[in-house]
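Continuing the series of single-chain predictions for the mutant panel. This is the parent chain; the variants come on the following pages.
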Amino acid sequence: MKESVTRTRTAAAPSSPVFCTIVPPHILGRLAESDDPAHHEPARRTLEHDALHRTRRIDLTARLTAPEEARADADKPNRTIYDAGHRQDLPGTKVHSETDGPAKDASVNRAHAGLGATFEFYLKAYARKSIDGAGLALDATVHYGEKYDNAFWDGRRMVFGDGDGTLFKDFTIPVDVIGHELTHGVTQYTAALDYQSQSGALNESISDVFGSLIKQYALKQTADQADWLIGADLLAPGVHGQALRSMKAPGTAYDDPKLGKDPQPATMAGYVETDDDNGGVHLNSGIPNHAFYLVASALGGKAWERAGQIWYDVLTGGHLAKNAQFADFAHLTVQAAQTRYGASGNEHEAVVKAWSTVGVTGK
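Parent structure:
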């Protein structure tokens, strides 16, 4: 690949935290146009809520501070779960602390376990102490809103809706959804990728990558055993689909009369030019998603050990610009593979081949 124009970035403080929802606007937008109130009413409420929170994320930026010095017990999770009681007031009522036993509420227990699985993955796989690298406490709120069809990271905490029960189930169910959203926090504290166009699609893709790896780690799966789906078990019975996204085969996750057909491209030949969804961040993320899948499947074994390590090196290495394009990221992964494993290694070859296959080349 040719030399990249990516600039070195050394900022220590988190900046521009994104308001990212796991269910993309194009799905909710289609549901909002449905003639069935059971579908359009939850979708419209969810879209209105999400639009409001996206405008508020700028206000949050000014209140965020750099990670503090790591706590003495930063290698242990500190989780607190709140219950919104189907309102939209955050954080809600505190219902579970780190040292509490299992709760009677399954959503509380799943949120607690998902936060823990994410914390353990980053600690054991990459020696990262929580999402900020310094033992940040992990907070989550369950039972948010009335039939709220989403989950999100707001720069401070995880928030889970219960779903509408007809199309989407409780959003605490898939551990990769929790891992995806918390990884937006990791990106917030490291590369702080702009949530727009290709840098935004990279932001989304990185969360899908590590969300999938967190699930694979929890299930002790190798790359060939993994389903490479994001949000499997989230779609309610009767929905024609497997998940929200497929990294193995973008564009095939669902094909449903109500949700529509999965529009994600797998290669640059299908790249979507749009002003919607911050320039198609949930659509075009399928391209770097597929590149990662190709690397992981070529290398085999536990995907977090080599393929994931390369992606993590780039995310945390300080050379990924906030406005990085796909070609910039590809160039850095090739460099990272060479630095860690050598230019003649299988890892370097797999990375180069994967980006070429999806149509991304260096600048």
